[in-house]
Amino acid sequence: MRPFSAFTYFRNNKLRVLVLILMMSFITVCFIGGMYVDNPGETFRVRLEGPNRYLVFSTRGSSNEAIEQYRKLQEELPSMLPEEAQEVIYLNRVYADYDCIMMFNCTCEFLVFQYEEDFELFKERTGLVPDDIHLHDGEVVMTELLANNKGLKVGDPVGTMGQYKLTSTMDGKGMWALGVLDAGGTGETMILSSDGNCDKKLSDDLDKLGREITKKYPLVYAVTNSLDLEDVESQIGFMYAIFGAVVVLVVIVLLVTINAAYTAAYDKRKHEFAIYKALGFTKGQIFRKVAGEVLWMNLAAMIFGAILNCGTILVLNQVFWSSGHHFYRVSKTGVIGTIIAEVLVITTIILLNWKKVRKCEVTED
């Protein structure tokens, strides 16, 4: 091991290096923060990111104008339907509430079919429900996550008035439910595949039809997976602004604390740097040594932080599953936030060290 290498300093200052690595590993708290911020939106994304298999439209509100537009759309609908999506059924699209992992209320889709045959047709044409699940009037099926979140078991009453009974749960990402209730009226229209072939063309055509309906009839609300996801993303945008503020706060706190620790360590090494200077090492070489130490410690901190985060997420998934919560996958928001914090903190620390080297503080006795 070369005396001038970064690892020589690590070997001779194990405790100090360990403390600095632990402090730098706190940068990865941004990743856990990103996982939490992403989770409410991720609950929708994992369910909606697949291809569009159906389209549902209804009125925006109950004004006479909205009802008139809905009626006109119903008259024009046969000429608007794409060739591969000619199946039309009527239902109610209501919403089931659940608590997200950040402890505020969200709502998910609850499709209520008027007839058992309509539910079976939906199941056949979309492939979204297991073949062994059958619903009769007043029965509901929902994802296991939603049932856990609401504290429901098979056989429990569902709904504010207990008008449904939970007959089964199904595997699936995210939160959603389906039911059958012949309530004598419907408010939504659903467009399904004509033959159950849910390919990309069907998905694109349903999306195109939804946008056409919304454009031509602004008081009619048309929904496909992709259109619904766009709406969700626009509604949760404020959460990313909050996360950005948290990242800035973390950067400021870590900059102050880590720089103070590096300054203290630097002051104790003035004699060491003076010796390097006397031996003929330039300011640039000394700076590269210090920068190398910072980067190697940062690498170790990131590895330690990644292991700690993975362990934390696995534990949280086990703990929160019974409450219907789940971290689905690596958060892009968390990764981006961590990288930004990492670059800002480490770059600033290195530049501050460069400033000290340029002031020739390394020659002080």
Report on this model:
The chain is an alpha+beta fold. It has two domains: 6-44 and 238-363, no CATH class; 50-235, no CATH class. Helices cover 56% and strands 15% of the residues. It has twelve helices and nine strands. It has helices spanning 6-12, 14-25, 29-48, 64-80, 116-126, 144-149, 200-216, 225-235, 237-267, 270-278, 283-320, 332-358, and strands spanning 54-59, 87-99, 105-113, 139-143, 157-158, 164-170, 177-180, 188-192, 220-223. The chain has a nine-stranded mixed beta sheet, sandwiched between helices. Strand 5 (157-158) and strand 6 (164-170) form a beta hairpin. It is elongated, with a radius of gyration of 29 Å.
Helix-strand string: HHHEHEEHEHEEEEHEHHHHH
Q: How many DSSP H or I helices?
A: 12
* Amino- and carboxy-terminal Cα gap: 27 Å
Low-confidence sequence ranges: none
Whole-number tally of structural domains:
2
- Using the CA coordinates, give the radius of gyration: 29 Å
User: In total, how many beta strands?
Assistant: 9
Please state the structural category: alpha+beta
Strand order of the largest sheet: 5-6-4-7-3-2-8-1-9
Share of residues in strands: 15-25%
Average pLDDT figure? 89
Using the alpha-carbon principal axes, give the shape: elongated
Largest sheet: 9 strands, mixed
The percent of residues in helical segments reads: 55-70%
